[in-house]
Amino acid sequence: MSVDLGGELRWWGQALADTWSRHRALSVIYTVAVVLVGWITEVTLALGVMAAGWVVVHLFRRYRHGLTLDDHQRHRRNANYIQWLSGAWPELMIRLGCSVQVTNGPRVAPEFTRYSWGPDVLWMTVSIPLGMTREQLALNADAIAQNLGARRVSVSSSSAGTSVMVAFHDPLEEPFIVEISEGAELRAIPLGLREDGALWTMRLGPQTLVAGSSGSGKASLVWGLILGLAPSIRSGLVQVHGIDLKSAMELGMGTELLTRFARTPESAVQLLEEAVAAMQARALELSGNTRQHAASLESPHVVVLIDEMAALTAYQADRDLMRRANNAIALLCSQGRAVGYTVFACLQDPRKETLPARGLFTQTIGLRLRDAMETAMVLGEGMREKGALCHHIPPTMPGVGFVVPEDGSDPVRVRAGIVTDEMIRDAARDFAAPEQIPIVVPEPAAAEPASASRSRRSRRTTKGEEE
Ligand SMILES: Nc1ncnc2c1ncn2[C@@H]1O[C@H](COP(=O)(O)OP(=O)(O)OP(=O)(O)O)[C@@H](O)[C@H]1O
Description:
alpha/beta; Threonyl-tRNA Synthetase, Chain A, domain 2; Rossmann fold; 2 domains; four-stranded antiparallel beta sheet; 16 strands; 18% strand; transmembrane; membrane
């Protein structure tokens, strides 16, 4: 059977034309309805695919990073804050005087070029305009913090230029405990927290001076160090030789952890001079073999720990003992590093008269101090401008201080962990030193310094001559 295709087409055309002429309105409605249904179906499908993609991405993020509803709210808050800060920052800089006048031009303020968020902390990278210094920004840190609704602002140098840390919560505000860690290394003894929330550790090696007014928390550093070293003390890898002339009130709590302990000026000087002699003997032994001592059970690292050093170096009635103590401390500080002898000393009053060997301490920790001058004496000139404000630490925050890192970079605000009497007693029981070496002070006649016996001899001779 042959099909007349032309006739068929004409028939369908005619039918369509008839329908159109008879049911024009219906045809329009039908056509629009079909187009709409098709379009809605397509859009719905597209939206569905988009939504599924979004869900997959968010599921991935949520389970990979463990995001919670709080995190979403925080992200939104952070985004709003950055939006506000972008507008407020240039004006704030100009109002605080942190800007420079371009010749025949406008005032230019530091710009924040990048940022990142940590828990309750905003890190900003700021570009300092030509003619301005980072110190100018650091001097206004308190005012910036108040205006940004933050607890603290600190300014430091970073590989990207200048970093401004805006902290909305101070991790150092509440006292905390640092647990004794069996695996702690001598290169990183845990002492407390840094203000960015990271663990604050100290390397055993630099001669360290801790300065702070009465009640500033020096004892928490002394005991923090001893407890941090506790496993090495028990094994015999480290010996602590303690000196406490304040009626042994402090170190007397845990003498089992100390290999040697002096509580009188005479025994303290004896301890120091014997440490110098042993250090020099070790130096002779090591000379030609190595340039850096490595602690071992046969040759342990010796920490000479002095609580309130001025009692020995400045407030001593016996001037000869005072001179001998200062000499020994200076020798230990200047020759001890390479041969495994470390001095860790505390001081309330950091003036030059209280400690002639102050300059020989290669690491200083400044707790609460009385004024800006003391801060400069302890941490060095220029550290105040870099944000180390020991004299602004409130008495309600003992254990808080500033440390200048060994590489001389910007000072870091830290807090030592609190050490309770119970922790000291427990450590004394569990980590006692393998041996305790008594200090034998020679009888005064035998210990008489050469100069005194010389003068007596000369007096005797004169007397003899007189006779
Ligand atoms: N890191 C710390 N965190 C919280 N509280 C601390 C910390 N260190 C010390 N304290 C508390 O502060 C008070 C004084 O501390 P501490 O005895 O250590 O001061 P100090 O500087 O050694 O004083 P002094 O020179 O008069 O002996 C104590 O009551 C102690 O409990």
